[in-house]
Predict the 3D structure of the following.
Amino acid sequence: MKLVYITLLLLSMLFFKADAQGIKSYFNVSHYTHTVNYDHYKAVFYVQRPEIGLGTIKSDRNYAWYSGNQIRYTQGGYSGKLLDGVYNEFYDTKGLKTQGLYQMGLKTGKWKNWGEDGKLDSIINYSSGKANGKFEKYDQEGALSERGTYRDGQLNGKLEKRISADSIQVVRYKKGKVMAYQPNKAVKITRWLKSIFKKDKKIK
């Protein structure tokens, strides 16, 4: 009889342990969004899950991490939980302010920014925390005003800025340095704008 009681006790302990682990997993805050409130906007984001390893920390990158109910940024290190997953910022009016993706504390993929009126402000592509690839900036009316390319965080290639209704300024860069400059290049600005919006529609 004593053996039966001991067996039942052991089984109960095993079930309780398994159930406790399930409860811990269910209520693990790492699997849920966090929110930090700032003046006039709030940030909603995810943090690094416990099962994900640290990986290699690069000294030339700025890492975003969460600690003490604040998002913090540090070059080459962190002390807390790295931001990992979809990141959104919302104005007090509920409109989107910023939208992008973090991977292990580093910006990656396409990041978009909007003004309080909902007009698109910029689109910048990132790779491992550095601006990489094409970017676009828009004026207060939501019209394209500038476009170019980043490579490893530096301007590289042709940078085009709209300076009037029918002309743009063209500057050529190589690894962040100006190589050639055309202050007033007349172009058919409507064709320039249409090419961008047509390309954007295909991407969507």
Observations:
- The first strand starts at residue 34 and ends at 38.
- Residues 13-27 have pLDDT under 50 and may be disordered.
